[in-house]
Amino acid sequence: MDAIANGPFWRLCGFKKTEAHLESARQQATFGKEAWKQIMDLYEDDIEDGVMTVDFLVYFLLRALATCLIPLWIIFGALTFGWLWPPQVREAVFTSTVFAHTTDMAKEDEQRRGQILKLRQEVAELKEDILQELAMDRTHVMQIRSQVAERKSDIANEMRDIKRLVALLFERQADA
Questions:
Q1: Where are the domains of the chain?
Q2: Staple 84 to which of 66, 77, 166, 168, CB 3.0 to 4.6 Å?
């Protein structure tokens, strides 16, 4: 149906699709949609009041009328090649379950793609955070190394001073 509505036949016949024309086509496509929905809603509701209540009798008569009306509507629609069918029946008859299945699969694939993109973004953020932490850790290690080098040079200087003092003490003791 989409191929017929959107195919080259519009151009071959000399029609130009305008927004007003598309809107009127959408309104025509919904012929009987609300009536069919209301008739189907009759079968959805259950009356729990009792068998001899007015509500039950009205619903029973409406359901009986709908039970006669639905086959007639479907027969008239079949005689007009689906033109008088409500959109719900046309959809059930003319749409492919393979298309619905592939649409569901496409939705799942799209959801998976979205999850993969989200995971990639999270991985990129995590990678950036780890690189920042590594840079901070490297600067921290460099600071510790410089502190160790300073302490080492301080200890070496103090050891030289102690060695010089011990040597002076030995000289004074030897002179004494």
A1: 2-95
A2: 77
Which helix (H) or strand (E) segment is 36 a member of? helix 33-44
The distance between the two most distant Cα atoms of the chain, rounded to a whole number of Å, is 137
Distance CA(96)–CA(90), nearest Å, equals 11
Which tokens go with 84?
Answer: 């008088």
Nearest to 76 by CA among 63, 64, 89: 89
Strands (E), 20-161: none
| pTM assigned to the model | 0.35
| Per-residue model confidence as pLDDT tens digits over 35-85 | 767 777 766 766 666 667 777 777 778 878 888 887 887 787 778 777 767
Question: What is residue 31's DSSP assignment?
Answer: T
Is residue 69 a contact partner of residue 39, using CB atoms and an 8 Å limit? yes
Structure token pair of residue 35: 């009536």
Tally of CB atoms within 10 A around 93: 12
Confidence band for 19, pLDDT divided at 50, 70 and 90: low
Cβ-count burial of 50 within 10 angstroms (0-12 exposed, 13-18 middle, 19+ buried)? exposed
